[in-house]
User: Fold Glutathione S-transferase from Methylocapsa palsarum.
Amino acid sequence: MTTLYWAPRTRSLRALWVLEESGAPYVRVRLDLFAGEQKTPHFRAINPMAKVPALADGALNIAESGAICAYVAEAFPDAGLAPPVGDPARGRYLQWLFFSPGCVEPAFLAKSANVSVRPETASFGDFDRVFDVLEAAVEPGPWLLGEQFTAADVMIGLDLYFGIDVFKLVPERPALRAYVDRCLARPALRRVRAIEAAEG
Assistant:
C-alpha cells in the first residue's frame, strides 16, 4: 500500500491531488510539523531532508512533490496523468513539470523577499516573464497539454492558485484566473481541499 506522509498547508497538497487523480489506493500519515514529527529517526529514514511530502511505496521511499507527482503518474498509467515515453507531448509535459520548482518557486521567493536579481543570472529569468510564459501556455486551454490533464497541471495549477489567491503575489490575468478555476473545479482537488479542511 502506498503511504503518503503529509501536513496541511504545505506542498503535500500536490501529492494528495495527484494521488486522488490517479484513483490509486493510498493511506495518509499526517505529521505534526510544529511538534517536530518530521525529525524523528523513522521519518528521516524516509526523507533525510525532514520535510513533507514523502511517499513510501513498498521498498521505495521518495520525496520532493514534483518527483512524487512524476512517480504517481508513471506508476498508475491508466489514469493518463503523463504522456507515455515516445509520445511527442512528453517533452513539453516534462518541461512544465520542472518549470514549477525551477522557475515559479524561485520567482515567488524573490518577489516575496523583495530581492532584485539580474534576469540573465537568475535561474527563473524574471518574475513577469515566468507568468507571461504561463499565461501563453494556459490560454488555449483547457490544460497545459491541451485536452489532456497531467501531473504537470497539478504542479502548475497549485502554484498559480497559491500565487494568485493565497500569497497575492501574481496579479490576476484572465487566462490564469480561468485556468486556476478549472483546476479548483476538478473533483479530485475538491476532495483534497475537503481533506485538508477537515484535518488541517
Observations:
- Residues 15 and 65 are 6 Å apart (CA to CA).
